[in-house]
Amino acid sequence: MCQLFPYAEHVTRWLEPEQQRAWRAYVRMQGELNAHLSRQMSVDSDISMADFAVLVQLTDTPDERVRVLELARSLHWEKSRISHHVARMEKRGLVRRENCRSDGRGSFVVLTDLGRSAIEAAAPAHAETVRALVFDQLSDAEVETLREISEKVFTRLTTGECASVIARCDADDPMEVVPQESGCPEA
Amino acid sequence: MCQLFPYAEHVTRWLEPEQQRAWRAYVRMQGELNAHLSRQMSVDSDISMADFAVLVQLTDTPDERVRVLELARSLHWEKSRISHHVARMEKRGLVRRENCRSDGRGSFVVLTDLGRSAIEAAAPAHAETVRALVFDQLSDAEVETLREISEKVFTRLTTGECASVIARCDADDPMEVVPQESGCPEA
DNA sequence: CGGGAATAGTTGACACATCATCCACGTTCG
DNA sequence: CGAACGTGGATGATGTGTCAACTATTCCCG
Lengths: 187, 187
Prior knowledge:
Two copies of one chain form a homodimer. Chain A is built from seven helices and three strands. The first copy, chain A, is mainly alpha-helical and 187 residues long. The first copy, chain A, has two domains: 112 residues, Winged helix-like DNA-binding domain superfamily/Winged helix DNA-binding domain (Arc Repressor Mutant, subunit A); 26 residues. In chain A, helix 3 crosses helix 6. The N terminus and C terminus of chain A are likely disordered. Chain B binds a DNA duplex (30 and 30 nucleotides) through helix 5.
């Protein structure tokens, strides 16, 4: 068995059985959940999760216009991804590009009316789906632990050697369930 | 604010603030973790996570050959995805296709020597990365809770209305950190 | 002022996922 | 037997993500 990886003991502490089980459960769940949320979103709102993320960033901003690099940083996307994606969204009329006067290199992504109504239509259903699939299954303690686990792993991912990947400036608010106004009273 | 979604109260209970925070932490973490694992895998093994998943299924099987539909079921992939992906892997020499004699429609995906050495090279580094990024950050209790949360959500996703998506037969073992032989003694 | 270096963004090539469609074979039942 | 229908799988079109190269502007330093 193990002789399949002759150098294993020098490189790897492997995973404990408990960890193996947890990891496989997590991987499976996470894959299915992503798939389900994406499908749900495109079925009942005709936009993708990626579109949604971009639109959230735009509605989060007072004048509904964000620099491309700003988008890249807050979404943790590569700039070329932003560029391609915005191009596609522009073709569908969800956003529009504008040149930046103060910096000749820059350009803004601006929310259109179509874009605004798209996200306003999508957000409630999405939040509802998340609630039904995830939070209705979990106790308060579990929710808290989920947050702690996520924060710990995320911190590990964005500090030290790992951080090299993208020029991580600060980057807050990568994604919301409900666009910012969700300071909804009865929430 | 909330009048942005006039029908919201009829449709949605929204998320509690605690849940919002947990959800955003989870989404962020999960996105970064996926990205990091994929990048890591392709950098130090020259195969993708998808390749890895397919190869694991093959090495899991005594004679290292699996029917396409079998693959689709155990990975929870669509059959066309398998087909395309196997085509690419075949072009790179990681697997090869063989016709099924007992059923003229069917075909087998067979592990090649190159494929075997690819996964043998990839697995330890991958397991090590997962351990370093995830499990080294977590207490035993957190690992247990992570598994419980994952199982609860996964169960919700694969039962009832949600299950309609793919013809969910049974489908076990969608993905492993270490190909099956990982019944490693000291693990 | 001039000439690199850094920065903002785009582009093209390619890997990947999904969807709809198609084809070949098998099964069933008249 | 043979027509109808189901199944295993392949294919092409399209949307999406990544990498590497490129352009254009701005910054910096002499």
